[in-house]
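Q: Second attempt. The first request was missing the SMILES, so the protein and adenosine-5'-triphosphate are both included now.
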Amino acid sequence: MTRNRLPPWLVLLLPAVIIILAVVAIPLVLSLYSSFTPYHLTRPDTLWKWTGSFNYIKAATDPNFWKAFGRTVLLLTIALNAEMLLGLGLALMVSKVTHGQRALRTAMMFPMMFSPILVGFQFKFIFNDNVGLVNNALQSLGLTDVAIPWLVDGNLAMFAIIFAEVWTSTSVFAILILAGLFALPQDPLEAAKVDGCTPWQSFRFVTLPFLMPFIYIAMAIRSLDVARAYDIVQVMTNGGPARRTELLWTLIGRTGYVDARMGYANAMGYIAILLSIGFTVYFFLKLQTARRELGMGD
Amino acid sequence: MAQVQLKNVVKKYGAVGVVHAINLDIAEGEFVVLVGPSGCGKSTTLRMVAGLEDISGGEVIIGDRVVNDLPPRERNLAMVFQNYALYPHMTVRENLGFSLKIAKRPQAEIDRAVDEAAGILSLTPLLDRKPGALSGGQRQRVAMGRAIVRHPDVFLFDEPLSNLDAKLRTQMRVEIKKLHQRVGSTVIYVTHDQIEAMTLADRIVIMRDGHIVQVGTPLEVFENPVNTFVATFIGSPPMNLLEGVIRAGQVVLADGTAIPQPPGLNVAEGRKVQLGIRADNIMPEGHALPPTAHMAFVEMPVILTEPLGTETLLYATLSGTEMQAKMLNPRPVSAGERMRFGIALDKCHLFDAETGNSLRG
Ligand SMILES: Nc1ncnc2c1ncn2[C@@H]1O[C@H](COP(=O)(O)OP(=O)(O)OP(=O)(O)O)[C@@H](O)[C@H]1O
Ligand SMILES: [Mg+2]
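A: Got both inputs this time. The predicted holo structure:
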């Protein structure tokens, strides 16, 4: 046999290469390419018309896009910080529980077990201005007698969305921080007590630095999650009223599938991905610094 | 500086008692060493003084305050932990200065104290490293440094040298002794190494199973052990113990060998006893210390030798018991050789065979 044969390493890698090409590379290249065309889902021939950076310039000069961008950053900032603080508090409390801690830890995971779509529907109901639980409760308690337009007022709607987001995902932080607390070495804490620390100082100077890597891991995971937030918002407000809760991906989704302007949607998608990458890189760097601080090496 | 008193101090985990009503008075500036086998409650006792462990009963008094309910930070003591317990995310400098920073001392004072401690412990070149980048001995010195910057009333050491190699251990032992001489604070030092105990202590406290067995200066506990436990625990090699019965003023061993009672003792005929002889007090003839008026001689086959340079440790059997004897100015001895040994009876001890208690006064 003198026929040229592929080298064995290539043969062995081929299945992986094919799968990666099919699943990742081709869609990626195609979507990137289409973002430079006026590709419209109902007119396939538009895919062959090159318009250069037109879509990107359009996105960059579209105030609606930047408002959605800003709102997404806002949601990320508020939701992540709220989840971090609540998760930390929850983890600290659960770590002190001696009886039934297992059951409690399992219960903590419940919110994560529901589909975000259902969570969205649930909170849509809870915050409904007529039949919602919140208004009902407030009115029954006599705290107010007007129907607060939770999902209609822009700020309140944003609050309601953040609330739902925090409700679903605080446990991600709580679980990861709890893992950190379990791994926390006891000796330095005892040393801190003898060195004169109050409980708060022990927490501030010993426990917290140790937990930072765990917090940053949770942040990195959750920033990816929140940056692509779509389902809860879609269900609760559909980006409305009048775009006041529009986030990047609800905007992109609408542009791509409702307006069928896929080329433009892809261009916005790529800008949005840069945001996610930005956040991930940021938290990853923080994580590395925190680990180095702890002498965990890199 | 302060005195420390333990009054009927008890520690229980649930129903299990691990420290049983111990009493101890430690004078101001005294260096007291707690020794005992693993699990006897040394660390627990120390941690109760530190405030890291609840006190189940009795009182711990530091200075003139009952500290039972005070948190560690209000007891003004410093502790060196067995596994160092350094803060991994702080540099050596920050580790050393941490307690002063917490006490809100001015930065200049902190720097001065840290530099001084670093100088004493040769840590100056390491000040900007993290504990992760230090060797065990260096970490140990940082842990010591962290204690000495504070000028506490009481130093607590929990087996601070147990992770070091033999040479470094000797060196650090000297450092600790010097440190105590310089600062003069009260020290409570836990170890299970009797050599550390003998060399460091003003007084040794020997513990077993949560009880204090004997308290005394190193020489007192060495020369007058209250029972066979202390006798075999203190001193190296451990004291040889021979089972026997008193017959006509002599200790008669199982194989019929008769050794006269140590002078000054008058034990009733027929009593079952243990005769305690340290290796220094039983030596082969011709290599022994100058004979005293109270010498006894026995013949034993040597089974093993351990040459140590200036002396050789001989293992021999007497009445079925393995004995260790010292040979000064040693000559080569082959296994199986029968030798005559002299015993300095005035240095020997008699213990009750059942209780193990000393029959000396
Ligand atoms: N949390 C606990 N619960 C139950 N028993 C405990 C607990 N901590 C320690 N003990 C028991 O208390 C006894 C004394 O322990 P301690 O640590 O004081 O021993 P130690 O003398 O310091 O021994 P070592 O030389 O090995 O350090 C041991 O028998 C140990 O098993
Ligand atoms: Mg111990």
